[in-house]
Amino acid sequence: MVNAGDMNGSGNLMDFLDEPFPDVGTYEDFHTIDWLREKSRDTDRHRKITSRSKESIWEFIKSLLDAWSGWVVMLLIGLKAGTLAGVIDLAVDWMTDLKEGVCLSAFWYSHEQCCWTSNETTFDDRDKCPQWQKWSELLVGQSEGASAYILNYFLYIMWALCFAFLAVSLVRVFAPYACGSGIPEIKTILSGFIIRGYLGKWTLLIKTVTLVLVVSSGLSLGKEGPLVHVACCCGNFFSSLFSKYSKNEGKRREVLSAAAAAGVSVAFGAPIGGVLFSLEEVSYYFPLKTLWRSFFAALVAAFTLRSINPFGNSRLVLFYVEYHTPWYMAELFPFILLGVFGGLWGTLFIRCNIAWCRRRKTTRLGKYPVLEVIAVTAITAIIAYPNPYTRRSTSELISELFNDCGALESSQLCDYINDPNMTRPVDDIPDRPAGPGVYTAMWQLALALVFKIVITIFTFGMKIPSGLFIPSMAVGAIAGRMVGIGVEQLAYHHHDWIIFRKWCRPGADCVTPGLYAMVGAAACLGGVTRMTVSLVVIMFELTGGLEYIVPLMAAAVTSKWVADAFGKEGIYEAHIHLNGYPFLDVKDEFTHRTLATDVMRPRRGEAPLSVLTQDSMTVEDVETLIKETDYNGFPVVVSKDSERLIGFAQRRELILAIKNARQRQDGVVSNSIVYFTEDPPELPPNSPHPLKLRRILNLSPFTVTDHTPMETVVDIFRKLGLRQCLVTRSGRLLGIITKKDVLRHMAQMANQDPESIMFN
Questions:
Q1: What was the pLDDT predicted at 259?
Q2: Which domain does 403 fall in, by range?
Q3: How far is CA 736 from CA 161, 580, 585, 602, in A?
């Protein structure tokens, strides 16, 4: 009998796996990462760098570079995300106006930019200037009349169809992952799931280009959600440049969490709201270090966007408002009613949209994504054009609804009947009776509200980039403005009522309809996404309305309570479940009294668990086991008789280890013994060289006993991000529970289809 010591130098051959080899520690597509393992690997890497830094000046410099690499990545993400957001904003403004006309002095100018540069523009007619011509003026020389209207109408539809067709074609041909909002997938990726290509360079390029096209087409969608996806693509690209992040999936997700914050920062001009959004809504693992870096990335992104100044108002946001009237306690009642409306709208939207998306996935409708986009775009453009509030871009609509009516406003919403004897300052205009323009605007807004509610259900989820923030805010802003005007007129005509008597005297400026629009927008966005803290912060950063936090909080909390009464899932969680992503939501509660033994595999009547033994299987045995099964890993036991647990080996690493051993070690053949112990087993003379695979063995796999409550097991999977845990009794292996088993069991307990969890 011989052992390793008698093999005259063969020890070096057998121990070649003590050095890392290519692709070890990586994961296959549609698999879940092992958070504990990634954390352990990063700790080992950091320990080595720290010990080496004391050896020489060069190693010390390398350790400093490693420490600063995280901040460098955040800087690059902020710069890139801010630049892309600025370019997208400018391009959307130009292409949206291109549907209605063109600037003769410089065709790349939007309507507003064109008239800014004109010397012939007056304040009263600031939207009209000789340099800007509608298509009817340019083509047939007429700006008024039925023929001019029909020509403009036709070209508006043609431009919209052209933009939408180009967008859906680019997505379908070059980057299928560029469709949708991206936030459900980002949430899933941040929870530890691998979706190769979802954050790739092609996806970044196509999503950026098509985002401009679809928003310009006039479809009922926004660019804010997709900008989070764009920022995460930037984060993934820059993290691949540094081995600290490219070789560790756990560290990469810290970068992506910060990138999500930068995305919201540039989408809304809300850096603090972006950090809170990443923390509350998107991230799965958010250590304090990531909080600081998210703040820095959001700051740089916001600064970059401010430098580009895409809105031309020297501010970060499009919806900046200045209200001159405080809110009163009696107004909390309509604010809470708007919160109720937001919660009901959120519930209605989620249920209808998920039903439509499920129908799209399960019927022939899903086979014709281009046709679907063209049909929805045509319907949207045909219905939207006659109504001035749906014809304009949704962002401009929200901006107008948020605005207070000053003395210089020319909007229909500000067509009040003025008192000719009024001598008040410009900023303190009293409540006045509504004029004909306000009544016209009210029924146009009512039609716009119905249209937006219906068309958004069918638009979100198509095979194009589509955000939900702006359409949801538009629905709430329209409803809020209408309620605000109603309360304002009620206060004016019935100021002697007890609810108005104390705070609304005749001739006073009591009610601000724009504030109601802002509160309604927050309520509807909260009802759809179920955000609370981050939503309120985003809204006050978005508008600059710092003193209106309490109304926003009241509406956000009410909308969440009402929506949660009908179902706990927000729109993003609903789409995660629809797509079958393996996402363990921290918000879900598991209250059933099942045990680990009820969920583990193998069950009674099933084949025994596939295991590896520590020193009695050959290379051929291991390869046969891998070939005959599709498991992601195998427990390693002392022997099949005792089944005492030693550790756990991943399938992918076994395959790579054996492949590398065959290439680099001459003595390894099919009947070579594979061993996972420190010392090789005793072998007969002339035996082929054994293969040591201890390096790829996880010696501390997470284990639970068979009587552990599933409530505890689910909590462990959530908080530690496990891929699997082994079930033992007195050290003897009984079975295994994977993340997929947990999700399947939770679905079963909730009376849902357990096979809806599609991925490993």
A1: 96
A2: 76-98+175-321+334-361+393-417+428-578
A3: 53, 22, 22, 8
